[in-house]
## 1
Amino acid sequence: MGRLSTHVLDTAHGCPAAGMKVTLQRVAADGSAQTVRQIELNADGRNPDGPLLDAASMAVGRWRLLFEVAPYFRGRGVALPEPPFVDTVQLDFGIADAGGHYHVPLLVSPWSWSTYRGS
């Protein structure tokens, strides 16, 4: 059963990125993007409703996650320059197997970010 999930960890504070806003978009062949859903991460840094895409919603193609990093850190009282070094992390990725589990974690600070295909 395919699904897409994400998890964000705030490496500057050593905790999940509770309250960060995340947008999931489907990217068309011409590069245009359509918003599928917008969420706010829960206390564990995850979607409070479970997977971003469940088995019925999974589809082969290009996808994008937009993580609103600078607003999250400003909300935590971190003084950021204007413009911030890391503002919105745009992560483009592909789903090649609609029956697979795609987990996209993000490790983030005001100055860096990292991702990988998780399990």
Note: Helices lie at 69-75.
## 2
Amino acid sequence: MTDLQKRALFKMVALSAVAAASLVACGKKEEAAPAPAPAASAAAPKAEPLKIAFAYVGPVGDGGWTFAHDNGRKALEKEFGDKIKTSFVESVPESADAERVIRDMVGQGNKLVFGTTFGYMEPMLKVAADNAGVKFEHATGYKQAENMRTYDSRTYEGAYMAGVIAGKMTKSNVLGVVASIPIPEVVRNINSFTLGAQSSNPKVKTKVAWVNEWFNPPKETEAATSLIDGGADVLFQNTDSPAVLKTAESKGKRAFGWDSDMTAYGPKAHLASAVINWGPYYIKATKEALDGSWKGGTAAWWGVKEGAIDLVSIADDVPAETKARIDEVKKGLKDGSFVIWKGPITDNTGKVQIAKDAVADDKFLGGLGFYVKGVEGKIPGK
């Protein structure tokens, strides 16, 4: 085969290959370009928890006032879970140091701050004035602001019920009260305890020993001992530790727990405990802060009716009829059919303070500054 013939053959083969490729290309179905993958949807950012701080006047292990507040804080955590984050500072003095602690709480990003004692009122007002975006709740006070409100419990209802039992159980007809600070709240409790005792035993009289502190176990022990030495065989307290009950136990007398159930601190001496449940109010306040319905400038005062006050762990040797009377009082306080501060009520100088059948309003009770008939001595500073 000549070179010319070879070149002609190669050309024919090449042309055939091109034609075949063209036929294949023409017969191939055109494929659509793949659609772009959908962009991953951005996850909604998780809401930051509401930061809530508590300032406590005593240690959380005091067994009484602060222990009850901390139980309320724990109830919050159980109710709201990761929607909130709580913290506390214990043993904050009722002094300029309280302002420093509360300012520090705000600086740490807390948007709801609870101050749990009367002496924090002025410091909280100062901090509230400088922090409009923070909500403040002050326990037992009477001053409010646009971003600060007050809350309290009707502890005098528990005091009255304890008095009903004390009047029945005393053998000497002398009752003793270890009192903290001479403010209306404490005077109201001393008087209500005495009124309750007089309802079951008109012969009783009440002696008071002031310690001028909320939590000071050695002073409370000393005061309780002096009352027992003065003839008191049933003790009541408006202080924060179990020292009074422990003293009664050691000396063979009877006493009550206060703010929390103190049975374990003096089981033989213990007659009952007048307790506070802060949980319902703390849950309400936090819910309002979370849903935007919280409003400052208001005051709340909750008692047996709202589930904030109760008398618990009544001793077995308290007579059945006395226990039944306590049940009647609780029922009456709940439905409004029973009123503790109803006249005639006279003070211990013989002056009529509430006329017959008249009922004291909250303003009157909030400024109480006298001892009722049956309480010995004078209120310090009066």
Note: The chain has eleven helices and 14 strands.
## 3
Amino acid sequence: MEQERIAFEILLGKERILIGNVGGEHMKKFVWNEARHCNADWELHLILKGSSKIDVEDQHYVLEKGQAILIAPGRYHKPEALPGEFERFSIAISLPKGALSQALSDKVPVGTVLDPGEELMRLASEIYRENASLMPFSQEYKEALTTQFLVVLFRLLHLGDEKKSTGGKTYPYNVTSLIDDYFEHHFADQAGEEDLAALLHLSRRQLVRILQEIYGMNFRQKLIRTRMDYAAWLLRTTDKKVSEIIGTVGYSSEAAFFQVFRKYFSMSPQKYRSKKRNGK
């Protein structure tokens, strides 16, 4: 796991959980304006000062100071900065497949806005302050604070009473981030398993296993899912012609694009756009 991500491995019950920060720092000041993306891990963002807009799939939220949003893995989202001073606290949560992961997915299938309460806000601020500390045992103290943070969050979501997991595998953020970034930047070109396997220094067989364990998909399924998600987002948020979108998401055949789109959304692109814009 990359040190600059300040990630922790935490054991809750028998669940091995990886906690990492989002974007290279625990706290982001004054701006939150990133490209549309998705990740293989859960993301939690707490607003400590100011406000911000964020789109999660086709839902639109305005987050104010004292609010948080939890975003499920694989869900596309795009934050947008608003005027004024702004601070946020962000972490990524990687859960192994099991009862706890399933319970969280049932509670938050896409994304949800939370009232984090005073305790989570206090812990977030304390972790940030300790992050800049030069005191002895700072790393151990941050891990203890982060464990408290996770316990309070799961209690807030009424998790933890599920049957114990038989155990699953979690992967370091340098692996999941490289995979997510690869699909984000190459879904429209001739992306291939061999290229991604080489990037990760894995065999093709190892890559197939990892993709199945993290996403429940093979390479082609993940590629098509990425293309369809982006095509749907363009239909919802832009006036681009369908013919333009087809090329943008990597299809040279209109018939092939329409066939896959109908399979995913059970309607044509034109009908999808009309339905999303008119709410019908």
Note: The CA atoms of residues 169 and 204 lie 19 Å apart.
